[in-house]
Each structure stands twice: as structure tokens, then as C-alpha cells.
Amino acid sequence: MEAARKDRDTDTLGEEVIRARGLRKRYGGVVAVDGVDLTVYRGEVFGILGPNGAGKTTTLEMIEGLRKPDDGEIEVAGYDAVREPGKLKRIIGVQLQTTALFDYLSVEETLALFADLYGVDGSREHVWHLLKMVSLTEKKDARVDQLSGGQQQRLSVALALVNDPRVVFLDEPTTGLDPQARRNMWELVREIRSEGRTVVLTTHYMEEAEELCDRVAVMDHGRVLVCDAPLALIRSLDMDATVLVTIDGPMGGLEGLPEVRGVEREGDDLRLRTSNAQDTIVGLMRLASENGARLRNLSVRSANLEDVFIAYTGRSLRD
Amino acid sequence: MKAFLSMVGANLKMQVRNRTALFWLLAFPALFILLFGFLFGRSSNFTVTVGVVNGNSTPIAAQMTKAMQKSSFFKVQRSGDRKAELQKLEQGDVDAVLVFPPHASPGQPLHVTSYVDRSRLSTAQAVSAAIQQIADRFNRGVNRGPELVSVITRGVQGHHLSSIDYLVPGFVAMSIMQNGVIGLAAAFVALRERGVLRRIRVTPFPLMSFIGARIVSNLLVVLFQVAILLGMARALFDLRVGGDIAQVAVGVGVFSVLGALAFLAIGFFVAGVSRKVESANTLGNLITFPMLFLAGIFFPITQAPEWLQTVARILPLYYLADGLRRAMVYGTSLAHLWTDAAALLATALMGLVLAVRFFRWEPGAG
Q1: Which residues of B touch A (CB under 8 A)?
Q2: Do B13 and A105 touch (CB under 8 A)?
Q3: Does B142 score more than 80 pLDDT?
Q4: Is residue A151 part of a domain?
Q5: Which of these, B24, B28, B23, B86, lies nearest to B52 by C-alpha position?
């Protein structure tokens, strides 16, 4: 524990809630998780960001005690996730990637049933409190199969809160949701954190990780590439922004522009990654007038987690 | 315990709200019973045949017999031979026998004995009520004087079987089989593949309890279903009840549970080897469909060729139908039904071994 803290800023980070070391899992010949170390601190929203197939869900499910790792150690709130999954289940809340619920039960009945399955208070007041939290009070008598995708997802989060858990795991909570439903879900996650719970979520949306997470572990091919606060990750890049522009007419020498770190070209569309947007744009303007080319659709996008991912893997998150 | 009961309750709620499942559970077997009931059933509730013995022995006896002849409900067959009439009753040729005493005893009411077949509850009740009504007319007629007629009803155990008596227990067995194998397998595969089982797994509720709750709710549903179907057949087609009603209820209950367990075990096996709901349905039908025709549901197996009889005797449905039929229609006590019971238990155990061997909690990969 001391060793882990030493290389962190101990003033801002609190008590360790999750501590996973050397997690490995293979399915047949495929290595899904290949030596993952993670530390999650109390009260933070911790994101695991990565493309599909990066090993996010497998990592999460090993921490939840749902899958046994081939190798490694996991401690969650003082419990050994491998040897004490039964005790662990009582203090964590889990939302699985696929929203799977009983079709013929109403929202209220589903919550009351799960309260009983957890052996916790299933009274109408408690259920009502949960429904209010996830804004489903109006839908309490609706059958689960009549809910929209976003509503089902929120019910699924309410189920993860039924046992008043210390740590809440959300596996891709916003996948498949429209932008409004996604924002609602973000609000909900912030509210869960404000109640003092620790939240661990997976996502393949970098804007979600940036917006929502206090710290992010970027995963690819079963490994954690880097783990820190989103802003710290972005600042650590030798990069300021991406300049996007369409060029009409011939133009060469783009690589020679000041501060440019990378050039991507698709027909006339150009993406310049730069460590100083101002210098690059001034240079670009000059180069264009010298060549007699016209610049259209000029825009500048600040560096984000996508760039972090590209910097570490050499490819885009969406590939 | 609360969690378990809660789960059973939720299962029952889901069962009742699932229209498709309800159709297979109740409407489908009920349609079979109605169809065959109207084809082969005796519409005994409209007229009943009564054998009357000593119908002319006293003036009151003659008047009563005449009153019955006038009523459109009775068809009267006069006879002097009590023994012959009772035999007809046992064979189902008459529905009741009314025996007047050979001569009146002065100062005493006329003691009339009405014999009914107690295995035909509806008919027995209807006949007794109608005869009592006619007797009451005499008793009330003479401004509340002394009682003129007293009727004693005696039950006789008939041994006549109609087609419907044979068919109905078979249809009930068929429905227990289909709901046990196909109903369970399809539902369970759906729960597993959609990830509901995984969701249960992250709660502290043991998955074994989840399965236990499923089995308990299934058994409750089966008992309810059997009661409704048999009750309907008895009300509409006077299905034979072969003995004391409590004993019959216990026998039918025991066989319903044994049969359900045997076929649920097969259902869990089917669920284990099926990746999709469709394949569970297909495999379930593949297992159950041949049994419908080979296990003697539609006709007595003794009329079938030798080889078919041999085949029938290795099919669990044969033993369930036979056990239910004997318990219900013949009123055979459980002590004499141990072969049927043992065959079903053996099926349940074999099914259990297979189910455990092929069981999966996790959705099938790929």
C-alpha cells in the first residue's frame, strides 16, 4: 500500500477502495486481460476507457467477483474478490453491459424483488427513493419491456443501488443511448458520487471519460496503457490541438510547418496535430498564399483523450 | 427465505402475465378436452336413465314413478329385479336405480332407496337432487302432515369407462410434459442468453435457490393447471372420479408433481444443450412430439401392435398418463401405482444427471 501511494500525489487521493495487481485472463487461446494493475480511491469516478475488445468488461467482471482471474490479486473494500465473492456482492452494486431484466414485471416490482434478493429494505419508501433518484417515478407501474433504452438503463442503475453499495460498477452505461439520455446518465453518475459512493465505469466514448471521470485508465489489447486524471493525461502529451482544414489547390511542405507533430490527409481534408496551434496556423496561412491555394473549413480542436489514445497506440479509438 | 418466497411470487406473476405460456398451459389442453369431450362425451346432464324397481308396489310408488315419467329429465325403465338394475348401474347402462319397498308399512313413510354411481359425481348429484325434489312434492302436498316418502341415497362404484375418462388424464399428462420440457427450456434459455442469470449471480441470492424457486413455482402452476383441467372435464363431461375424492386428489397431486419433476429435469437438460430459444423449442418438440403418439394418449396401448407396446413402455409420458388415469379414474391407491411412480422418479433422476452434465449459467459464446 505504501509503495503504491508513493508514486502518487497523496494529498488529493484518499483511501484505496480497489486494488488489483497483475490480473490475467485468457479464453482458449485469446488473452483478454494481460497483466492489469488498477488502484481506485474512495469517492472517485474511475473510468476504464478503450475500444471494443480491449478487455474492459473482463477486467470489470473480475473485480466484481463474477469471473475468476487466471492470475493476480484483487481487493475491493477490504474483501478478496477471488476468495470472498459472496461477501463482496453485498457491498457492491453492479450494472452489467447487457440490460437483462424480467419482462413481465413492473419497474416497482423489479426493484422490490431485487431488494429481497439482496436481503435489504424493499419497502415502498425505499423503492420510491430509488425511482426518484433515477427519475422513473412516473414509470413505476410500467412493464420493464415497455421502457425505452435509456429508461431500462436507468432502472438497471437503480438496481445497482438497491443494496446501498459502497462501490458501484457500471459497464458501458451509455452505449446505445441518444445524446439526451446520455447526459441524463452522466447527471445520475455524478449524483451517485455525491452520495459518497465510488463509481467504476467502462466506456468507449472519450468525451464521456473526459466529462465524467476523475481518473481514467486507458486500455488496449488487455493492458492498461496509462492511468491518470483526463486533463493530466492530455497535458502530458506534447500536443496542444488538432487543426482541421480543407485545401483547394496543390500544396506541399506541410510536415515542415512549425510545431506540427503529425499530418493525416484524406483527399483535400487535412488533420494537423500540433503542439502550438497559433504558430501552426500562421505558418499554414503563409504556405497557402505562397502556393495560391485556398483554405476552407478551418477549425481547431483542443487535444483530448482521443489524442492520448492515438499517442499510445498509433491508431484512433474508433478503429 | 423471504428472498426465496419473493422469487417464487415473482415467477408466478410472470407466468400469469405471459399470455403465450398461459395458452399452452390452459387453453391448449382445454381445447383438446372440449373437442374430444363433445366428440365422445356423454351428455348425461340433459336426461338421465333411471331403473325403477317395484314401481307399482304402493300407490305412492306408482304416483312417484308416473311423476318421473312425465318429467323430461328422467327416462324411466321399470323392472322387478333390483340386482339386475344395480348391475346395469355399475356398467353405466343406467344412471340411477330407484328401489321402492315391495309393500307399504302402515304408519311409516315409504322408504325409497336411490342408488347412484358415485364415480360420476355430477350425474349422481343431479339425479339425487331431482329425485329428492319429486319426493318433496309428496311430503309437502298434504298440508304438512306426516312425511310420506323418505329417500336414502346410496353410492355404488361403477366400473364403466367412457372414452373421455381414458382421454382426459392423457391430455393432462401431455400438457404437463410440454410445459415441463418446452416451457421450461425456452424460458430458461431466454433468461440465460439475455443475461438475467448473470444479473442474479451478482446478487447474494444463490443461483441454486433461483432454480429451486423456479421449480417450486412450476410445481404450483402444474397443480393449479391439473385442478382446473380435471375440474372442467368433470363439470362438463362428468369425468369419472374413481373413489374417495380426497384419496383421488392425493393420487393425482402426487403424479402431477412426479411427472412435472421428470419433465422439468428433461427441460433443464434441453436448456443446457440449446444456445437459442428456437433450438430449445425444436429440441423440446423433437423429444415430446413422438411421445404424444407412442405413449397411448389417444388410444389404449393394449390395442396397439406388440412392438408399439414395447416402445410405449420406455416412454415417461406413458407412465405419467397411466398413473394419472389410474389415480383419477380408477381410484387406485398410490400403494398400487409404484411402478408408474418409480418410472417417473427414474426419469427425473436420469434427467437430473443429464441436466447437471450439460448445465450452463453463462450465455453461449458465439
Answers
A1: 2-3, 6-7, 10, 13-14, 17-18, 194-196, 198-205, 365
A2: yes
A3: no
A4: yes
A5: B86
